[in-house]
Write a structure and sequence with these properties.
The chain is an alpha+beta fold and 388 residues long. The protein has helices spanning 23-37, 47-54, 79-86, 100-111, 130-139, 151-157, 161-181, 191-204, 266-285, 292-305, and strands spanning 41-44, 62-66, 70-75, 91-94, 119-124, 143-148, 209-210, 215-218, 239-244, 246-248, 251-252, 255-260, 317-319, 326-330, 343-346, 349-352, 356-359, 362-366, 371-373. The chain binds glycine (GLY) and manganese (II) ion (2 copies).
Length: 388
């Protein structure tokens, strides 16, 4: 029944959902690391990690990965979808009378054959309930369970060529939606309308949706980094901060532009130039082998030099991929090192309560020789005017 190879297209696949020829490599990288970690198997319970390894885009399903084989554990709602998206994997389907934990216990006992020594199965400690763990520990007497953290997430940090390609398109799509939004920035529009329009435009251009609820903040609202749009009207607000992204094939883009008009203060302009200089310094610092904390430091040094260090209230950026926020983190406390294939945001910002906020955010691919800024929207002070 259904597809017999990764990459088949059908009812559940858009063009992007089915760019899956890298899946065997991903599983091979995981099984290689299982040996190094002393594990006989890993039970993958995080929905995003299941998707990354198998191509399956549904929920409530686990993967059991051993050195010899990988099985997917799911339920009857997803039989057709699994056959199409990952029909090459053995599939265990639970009946409505059986819980996913019960099925998992059954499959663990079936597939993890007892040997001379006790078997070790890794669990994703951040993605499994205590009660499920207790059930497995009680009923799988031959198995020792080991709490693991970040095994698949660390593989996800370095994107493969297909992930880079789809992210490029997710960025491009977000940019096109933003450009077509600019004419609707009139005094009578509200933050909520602008956010709604941005989402509609991205969807019409082919996005699955937003990477996150867009932030549209008029005037002083821009000083709140995670603001939620309201019915506030633009009227004569001197600045607009928009933070948005498109999701395509599961992959997120994440951009911010801060627009202004002539009534914006001289202090706004000075701060804007400093934030831009900070962002460019950080991008200049990015390359393989560079400590993520050093990139944060490069950005922070510029803002500190401009007397704005205290106004930069968050880390510099984050990895972006199947999740909007993933590793590596670009922050002063990060212990991660950049590598070619990582995609990170670079988003310095300064925030002044009751006055204005400025953030400039682009998505940057680490390359063998340095980096490539995937987003192309202009960001010079004069490029970012509205209603001239
Ligand atoms: N809007 C979320 C972020 O930029 O990280
Ligand atoms: Mn953002
Ligand atoms: Mn971001």
């Amino acid at each position: 029944m259904g597809a017999d190879r990764p990459g088949a297209r059908g009812a559940f696949g858009s063009r992007w959902k089915n760019l899956m020829s890298e899946l065997p490599d991903r599983l091979a990288r995981l099984t290689d690391s299982l040996g190094e970690l002393g594990l006989d198997a890993l039970l993958v319970t995080d929905e995003i990690n299941v998707r990354y390894l198998s191509g399956f885009t549904g929920d409530s399903s686990y993967l059991l990965v051993t050195a010899r084989e990988t099985a997917i554990l799911s339920d009857g709602r997803y039989e057709a979808q699994i056959a199409e998206q990952c029909g090459y994997l053995p599939c265990f389907v639970r009946p409505p009378s059986e819980s996913l934990s019960d099925l998992t216990e059954r499959v663990l006992n079936e597939l993890i054959a007892p040997g001379d020594t006790r078997r070790k199965v890794g669990l994703e400690a951040e993605h499994l309930s205590m009660s499920a763990y207790q059930l497995f520990a009680e009923r799988c007497g031959e198995i020792d369970f080991v709490a693991t953290s970040g095994i698949v997430e660390s593989l996800r940090m370095v994107k493969d060529p297909q992930e880079i390609e789809v992210t490029r398109h997710a960025v491009r799509l977000a940019e096109r939606a933003f450009e077509s939004l600019l004419p609707m920035l009139t005094p009578g529009c509200s933050e909520r309308q602008v956010a709604h329009e941005l989402e509609a435009k991205m969807r019409l251009l082919g996005a699955e949706g937003c990477s996150f609820a867009p932030i549209v903040a008029f005037g002083a609202a821009g000083a709140l980094p995670h603001y939620e749009p309201t019915d506030r009207l633009l009227e004569d607000a001197p600045t607009i901060l928009i933070d948005w992204g498109a999701k395509l094939g599961g992959y997120a883009s994440d951009l911010t532009r801060t627009l202004h008009r002539n009534s914006a203060s001289a202090e706004f302009r000075r701060c804007y130039e400093a934030v831009l200089e900070s962002q460019l310094a950080a991008i200049e610092a990015i390359g393989p082998g560079v400590a993520a904390s050093d990139v944060d430091r490069a950005a922070r040094a510029v803002l500190q030099g401009a007397g704005l260090g205290a106004a930069f209230k968050h880390g510099l950026g984050h990895g972006v991929g199947l999740q909007i926020h993933e590793s590596p983190r670009l922050s002063s406390s990060s212990d991660e090192t950049l590598a070619a294939g990582m995609i990170v945001t670079v988003e310095p910002g300064v925030y002044f309560d009751g006055d204005f906020g400025i953030r400039i955010e682009d998505d940057v691919l680490v390359t063998d020789s340095g980096c490539e800024v995937l987003s192309r929207l202009p960001k010079g002070l004069d490029d970012c005017r509205f209603m001239l």
